Amino acid sequence: MTAAELTGKSPEELREQLVSLKKEAFNLRFQKATNQLENTARIRAVRRDVARVQTILNQKAAEAAAN
């Protein structure tokens, strides 16, 4: 997922994606704790995707407040 893909989405779509990413991160943490996690790099990727979505949401909120 790139920032360019996210900027084209509405804030509501971004919030939905944020919720699904946080659920995925939660499940990955459980898999790691029970030694069932196969792709450890996925934790890092999901964490960064969450940060990307939050950044775009904040940018959109700042634009809305400026206008």
UniProtKB/TrEMBL annotation:
One of its GO terms (molecular function) is structural constituent of ribosome. Signal peptide: none annotated. One of its GO terms (cellular component) is cytosolic large ribosomal subunit. It comes from the Bacteria. It comes from Pararhodobacter marinus. GO terms for biological process: translation. This is Large ribosomal subunit protein uL29. PANTHER family: 60S RIBOSOMAL PROTEIN L35/50S RIBOSOMAL PROTEIN L29, LARGE RIBOSOMAL SUBUNIT PROTEIN UL29C. Keywords: Ribonucleoprotein, Ribosomal protein. Belongs to the universal ribosomal protein uL29 family. CDD domains: Ribosomal_L29_HIP. HAMAP family: Ribosomal_uL29 (MF_00374). InterPro entries: Ribosomal_protein_uL29, Ribosomal_uL29, Ribosomal_uL29_CS, Ribosomal_uL29_sf.
